[in-house]
Amino acid sequence: MSNLKNALVKCAFRRSLFNNRQCRQLSYTRSCFNEQQKNFNKIQDFPWLLNKDQPRITKYPYEQATQDWGFLNILPIGLQRAIGKWLGTRVLQLNTGFDNFPDQFLVGASLASRQAISLLSDQLKHPDDKSKRAELQHILGPDLVDRFLKAVPPDVDINIDIPQIYDVNLGDIWITLGNPSAFSLNGHRQYEILRWMTVQIGLQKAKSVDKDEETFQEYRERISRSIMEGVQVGVDVLIDADIIYKANKKDNDDDIVLYDEGRRTLRMRFATPYFSPANKMVSGRDPETGDPINNWNWRLVDIDQLLEKESMDAATSMNSTDEE
């Protein structure tokens, strides 16, 4: 039980960063699994989606607006998602530049994705190489790196390659506003969490015991103060690409145990650091153009909703345990 709670502390921060992936034809999978059961990781359990696999989250459970903002629920889900995406786009354009997002960002995301997969593949072959791991963590989030490395079978070499990218598109944009401690395990003591679609706000609790005594002006000021305490943005990037996933016996390229090749859509989630206070997202302005200056880098924090699905499952398990 305590281990599950510890996991949820990490998942609380992960949630904001965490759909449709359609597998296309032009794919084939060949596997030669050894049926002998062993007490270590097996290649068939390694968390990489094959081309024939369904998405990990087939229908995303988007959050409905709370009672205070219930009028939003009148709108169709598709329109609500579009509004959330527009809000995220505005946040990023204002803080990274209108010329940067989304066009330059998507170009950079496609290049970074290919580089990240290449570095990850190299790291999987040498899981104990700390220098390679340090290089990889400049691009991939540490939770994602740990998840893959802990699942590496000791008796195989894994190679993942993206030989061709056909198209790159923008998916959902996830916005988290407020003090990062609001989303911790004990954050409910000082904050209430407002969630809607792809937006969540850690809102400072009203000073008065009875919220009905709070005026609308005081409520607006409370929201303004809260959202300036921090910000983090996650962007889903949908990459239409050819993907080769190969596993062979350790140090024997010819002894292939799994081979999967095909064209499908990778769902990559890139995230900013968590800026607290929120104005740290912009370190300055270009004196000539007025464009924002950003002294930070995006990180790839999830691939094909791996961590997001596991976070959702952990939360569901936790809720079930509490009900018992």
Rg, rounded, reads 22 Å
**Poorly predicted ranges:** 1-16, 19-38
Helix content: 25-40%
Bulk shape: globular
Distance between the termini: 13 Å
Q: Sheet with the most strands? A: 7 strands, mixed
Tally of separate helices: 7
| Order of helical and strand elements | HEHHHHEEEHEEEEEH
The fraction of residues assigned to DSSP E strands is 25-35%
Question: Could you tell me the number of beta strands?
Answer: 9
Average pLDDT, all residues: 86
Helix vs. strand class: alpha+beta
Plain-language structure description:
- It is a single chain.
- The protein is an alpha+beta fold.
- It is 32% helix and 25% strand.
- The protein is built from 7 helices and 9 strands; from the N terminus they run αβααααβββαβββββα.
- The strands form 2 sheets. Strands 1, 2, 3, 4, 5, 6 and 9 form a 7-stranded mixed β-sheet that branches. Strands 7-8 form a two-stranded antiparallel ribbon.
- β7 and β8 (292-293) form a beta hairpin.
- The model is unreliable at 1-16 and 19-38 (pLDDT under 50).
Short structural description:
The protein is of the alpha+beta class and 324 residues long.
Question: Can you give keywords for this protein?
Answer:
globular; seven-stranded mixed β-sheet; 32% helix; 324 residues; 9 strands; alpha+beta; disordered N terminus
